[in-house]
Amino acid sequence: MRVDLLTPCFWPEVRRGTERFVHELATDLLEDGHQPRIVTSKWGRPDRLEQDGVPVWRVTRLPDGRLRRRKFEDHLTHLPMAYPLLRAGGADVVNAFAPPDGAAAARWSKATGRPAVFSFMGVPDHAGLMWRRKRLELTLAAVEGSAATVALSKYAADAFWTWLGHEARVIAPGVDLDRFPLGTTRTEEPTVVCSAALEEDRKRVRLLVEAWPAVRRERPGARLLLNRPRDPGVARRYAGDGVELVDMDDSAELARMSGEAWAAALPSFGEAFGLVLVEALATGTPVVGSAGGAFPEIIDRPEVGRLFEGGADDLARALLETFELAEDPGTRAVCRARAAAFSARATTDRYEALYAELLAA
């Protein structure tokens, strides 16, 4: 199958969860004998390159400052250049990963008669759909014009039905178990890793920093490792005793830190999935997440971590309980087995089956 994967940003410019997911899906499709192509954008002149054997076409992203100031949906200005690439590419299937790209893929599907897939990487609830101007309209265009819509979790799929009256399929993003190998030793003092972007308030990393003094009262040597932001002003807001800012963009370095940690934490609320938690589980490290959103679909048993409700005190208590889990020699194997249920291989198999089903129809 010739599959175009349409995403507004990609490596090396951006290395968040969606970009890692698209990269792993593309490389798995290539390994299985298909012909994936990534269509994305960048600032500056367009180019074409290969990453791990996958062709990546990066079109020019036009300035969007005025649109941002007026609160329009992000990632609109590359579409006039990306759409002609789709029409000329001859793909059998186009899979889009953001609402604007999903609307473009739906238009491509109408013009060519070939199926488009819209993978929604968030939660389509009222707050999410109304966060930016035109997001609701673009999401509806993508959903109504695609042959299938994919949600990352049952929680996100339920939101599709509640807010849009649309039934979405659930395909959870997968972790590359080879990239996140099982750790062997933990740090001498309890260490917590949080790879969430500090610039995104919805990740609630501030809550983790507020909980940290209570953790340090029980475990004075405990360390909290946060993902270093590019903005020094943002970095200064997260200073504290036992809090360290480190670079986590490199997946190999993140895997090493996760494997040595006593816990990985993600305090955000209402997440569509939580891939960073699964990545930590793959290294054998228990995790902590909020009880709202899709995290209960990952932390579904007490042997792999803790869910918390409420504020900083509840989060501190969950972290301290997770430290006890990390001291149990059997925890690594249980966490690794839980992560294996969300393997990248299983995710690719489900996407391949979906593409084949739509093409056969």
Give a description of the structure:
The structure is a single chain. The chain has helices spanning 17-31, 65-69, 79-89, 99-112, 126-129, 135-145, 154-164, 205-218, 232-236, 251-260, 275-282, 295-298, 312-326, 331-340, 344-360, and strands at 2-6, 35-42, 47-51, 54-60, 93-96, 116-119, 148-151, 169-170, 191-194, 223-227, 243-246, 263-266, 287-290, 305-308. It contains 15 helices and 14 strands. The two termini are 15 Å apart. 49% of the residues are buried. 43% of the residues lie in helices and 18% in strands. It is an alpha/beta fold.
Give the structure's gist in a few sentences.
This protein has 361 residues and is an alpha/beta fold. The protein is built from 15 helices and 14 strands.
Key terms for this structure?
15 helices, 8-stranded mixed β-sheet, 6-stranded parallel β-sheet, 361 residues, alpha/beta
Strand content: 15-25%
Order of helices and strands: EHEEEHHEHEHHEHEEHEHEHEHEHEHHH
In total, the number of strands is: 14
> What is the averaged pLDDT score?
93
* Helix-and-strand structural type: alpha/beta
- From the N-terminal CA to the C-terminal CA, the straight-line distance is 15 Å
Q: What low-confidence regions span 5 or more consecutive residues with pLDDT below 50? A: none
Topology of this protein?
Elements: E1 2-6, H1 17-31, E2 35-42, E3 47-51, E4 54-60, H2 65-69, H3 79-89, E5 93-96, H4 99-112, E6 116-119, H5 126-129, H6 135-145, E7 148-151, H7 154-164, E8 169-170, E9 191-194, H8 205-218, E10 223-227, H9 232-236, E11 243-246, H10 251-260, E12 263-266, H11 275-282, E13 287-290, H12 295-298, E14 305-308, H13 312-326, H14 331-340, H15 344-360
Parallel strand pairs: 1-2, 1-5, 2-4, 5-6, 6-7, 7-8, 9-10, 9-12, 10-11, 12-13, 13-14
Antiparallel strand pairs: 3-4
Helix pairs in contact: 1-15, 3-4, 4-6, 8-13, 11-14
